[in-house]
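Usage

Read records sequentially. Each one opens with the input sequence:
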Amino acid sequence: MPWLLAGGMLTGAVIVLLSAIGLAMLLLGSAPPPKVAAGVSVAGVPLGGQTLEEATAALAAHNFAAQNLTLTDGERQWTVTLGSLGIDVDATATAVTAFDAARGATVQPWYTIDLSRTQNGLVALADQVNIEAVPGNPPQIGRAMDVPVMLSRLYENLAGEIGDGVFELSIIEIEPPEPDSPNVSATERTVHVVERGQELALIARQYGVSIEDILALNNISDPNLLYVGQELTIPAAGLYSPRVEDAPPAPTTSGKSIVVSTGEQRIYAYENGQLVRSHLTSTGRPETPTVLGDYKIYVKHVATDMSGPDYYLPAVPYTMYFYQGYGIHGTYWHNSFGRPMSHGCVNLPTEEAQWFFEWAEVGTPVRVI
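and closes with the structure output:
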């Protein structure tokens, strides 16, 4: 019967179609997984022909953190590892980028950075990189790493800054401090233990003596040959504190108040008009000056991140803001107190910043002169 023939033909067609689908599914199921295009590599690691999982494993095993990075300051150079500055490569993200790359492409790694480790690594290099500013005839102009600016550069464009294996240091040129000796004693002595990043000129200023006084007393012929842990005999009773009659007047005769002298690079604490503490500080450089005028502390943070147009600093300790983004705070990235070094804030050694932080309340007047 015709309808039986038609039905038989339809049944045969369905069987053929189902067989074709089954064959296609079988072929798809056994098809090899997609792979990275031939000739693709990442920083010298060949990945062509590897699956995504294989490429990720190859990158993870490469240990990018051990690769060298050259730091430069003009003709001077230092070699460090990426890991010593808290820099590594995200193997998974880099493998995905390589997987999408065209045949024969060279793919840039996806870098990661731990800025806290970066700042520690840069500060540890200060003894090698920084050059002391020394008074004399002629004076020796100093050079110091600008750690906040370098952290900002790496934070904003990590791959662009280190992709060629070279990182140019941001450097501040330092004018030497004026020599003075208001505090020299014929009999009293203090032992000073040299800390990382300290310079003889500023150690002398801390105690109110001259470099020559320290050199003579310690039989040192070359002021550049200081080392961390060295004990220096200082011809003074202790850290220099200005006489009350030489200090600037207090902003108020009642309660607590603070004066910051940008000319003297010194901070003063007053209580009921009486000077109770003073220490060397570092205020803003000429291109980023500290604001002058009368203000009040409006907020305090035990630790806070700071950033600006060209700098980034994580976990700045004992910060007291007195006007917009200007604050008094501890400083872990330099030890050059006694000369302008900041981007506008008032830098103090961390221990000294802690004293002011615990002593002053929100609302304490701050006068910057």
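Summary fields computed downstream for this record:
- Residues 2-29 form the longest helix (28 residues).
- The domain at 244-368 is CATH 2.40.440.10 (L,D-transpeptidase catalytic domain-like).
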